[in-house]
Amino acid sequence: MSDGTGDGQEPMDRRAAGDGGGAGEGAAERGRGLRYQIRRLYDWVLHWADTPHGLTALFLLAFAESSFFPIPPDPLLLALCLGASKRSLRFAGIATLASVTGGMLGYAIGAGAWSVAEPLFFSYVPGVSAEAFENVRAFYDRNGFAAVFLAGLTPIPYKVFTLASGVFGINFGVFVLASVLSRGFRFFVLAALVYRFGPPIERFIDQHFDRLVILFSVLLVGGFIAIEFFL
After folding, report:
1. DSSP labels, 174-204
2. Which long-range contacts (CB under 8 A, 24 or more apart) does 214-220 make?
């Protein structure tokens, strides 16, 4: 009887020990899963550069990122510019137009349909939360133009500001001007660098692609964190 109890206790002890370490392993596994999902989505975005639909994809991606899509258009813009550096400025113009137009849609959703759209956005769109909106409200109270401009220029999720601009009733002209200046500056600087230094930049990206993906992911997550802690 004693041996049987001992034999039965040992697996139980091992299971208990396994449970103790399971939380850490589970967190690590979730972290790896998130990085894998980001990389898959990132690769999916980039693959459009090698298709005949690259320009259409750039427009749709820049448009969607302004209100709900989590990946910004910069990686696809960069890939298209590297593939045809002489057309870089044209690509930047398309990305700017699409992004500002998508921002207008976000503004319209915030101004006219937020009571219906709010639960969907808070539940399913990364970076869009009630807490983020309250932080953005405080930032708007200080300077609405700067809020939109910084969101359009930096990794801070632009979509939060486009939606919040409509919800809080920021002047539409100010919103559009800040969006055009910030998104245009961001995309045209990237395109101009490729236009001027195309081959060296392409070699640099090829050599450090994995590190750049990690950096991009850090900036993406950092933008969401900035909404929570710094606004």
Report:
1. HHHHHHHHHHHHHHHHHHHHHHHHHHHHHHH
2. 216/42, 216/75, 217/35, 217/38, 217/39, 217/42, 219/155, 220/38, 220/70, 220/71, 220/72, 220/155
For position 190, what pLDDT does the model report?
Answer: 84
pLDDT tens figures, 215-228:
655 555 555 455 44
Give Cβ neighbours of residue 165 (< 8 Å, ≥ 6 apart): 106, 107, 110, 140, 144, 148, 175
One-letter amino acid for residue 154 of the chain: T
- The C-alpha atoms of residue 107 and residue 97 are separated, in whole angstroms, by 15
pLDDT tens-digit map of 156-192: 678 888 988 898 888 899 899 989 998 998 899 888 8
